[in-house]
Amino acid sequence: MANDDEDFGAMLAEFEAGKKPDKRRPKPGDQVRGKVISIGKEAVFVDVGGKAEGVLDRGQVTDREGAITVKVGDEVEARVVNDTGGVLELRVKIGRGPEARAELAQAQELGLPVDGHVTEVVKGGLVVDVAGVRGFVPASQIDNKFVEDLSVYVGQRLQFRVSRYEPGPRGNLVLTRRAILEEEQKKRVAEAKEHLVPGKVVRGRVTGFKPFGAFVDIGGLEGMLHVSELGYQRVERPEDVLALGQEVDVVVLKMETDEKGRPRISLSLKALASDPWLESTRSLGEGSRVRGPITRLAQFGAFVQIAPGVEGLVHVSELGAGRRINHPKEVVKVGQEVEATVLSIDHDKRRLSLSIAGAGDASPDEVAASKPVAPAKLGTFADLFKKK
Q: Which pairs with CB-CB distance under 8 Å and at least 24 residues apart come from 330-334?
């Protein structure tokens, strides 16, 4: 009997552990996600779970031409603005027309987005018309990055959130677009973490340049293409190999987020190109002869390009044809074509040591003539008197 009680108790505990409590009914102000279950002439019905059904005014999900933007089965996000006890009244944006003014305070309280038409640039920001109410967007709140020329937004219709609203004849309406963009970016980052893995090839568009690299938009997120990842050849400026607006295939090297949740994505073009080092040094060995231009000079030697993206070093001790020199510029110059001999190849460190016999183009006779000649032996005083 005791065993039967124990078995029953175990089954009851297992049942209780597996039983999930009913999801609570959303209340006004809650952000909910639901699935469109039917579309009527005036309203759209949404299943938001927890035995609750929401209703959206059809105008909430239509575009400027009056076409509906959702279909049965689509998921939508909305705010609960009222609970009549039967269905939940939902909003995805502020209403239009005369009622819009009354809804601005509610939009601020519930965080509802509002549609606004940018009309002009003023000192410190933009003026935006929201259903006939004049609003102001500070320059720092128009985007989630610095915008130098605000005039590009004039004439655009954008979504904003209400930061502050003081109704009245001289009401004060302050808006932000940055908050919406940051929320959208967080969603994109969460999605991107699943598929932007190291080694994946993605297509992007060049959006800007800095001295250290180029910015590439990859599906709404910006990645950095460092100058060292533009190719195997030495690149001084990213503008030399890329153009603004150009579409490129790039490899994801790394993706991480900073302390504020902003993405840091490292990209590479070089990873898609064949390695010129392997191609150029495969057939070389000690004693092989190579030819190429001097690309740069340093105190310790001169660099010779033997193929695009592949350089070898001629140490300063291998430049003087037997005579001591203080700097490579004494015997060679940038751009000069030279022939050199391979002294050694280090494939692991990708180093190629070269030697230039005769300081470039000097002949053996010129090399011999360049060597200092020892002075003749003076002899004795007796020899000197004999000559006299």
A: 331/359, 331/360, 332/294, 332/297, 332/302, 332/356, 332/359, 332/360, 333/294, 333/297, 334/293, 334/294, 334/295, 334/296, 334/297
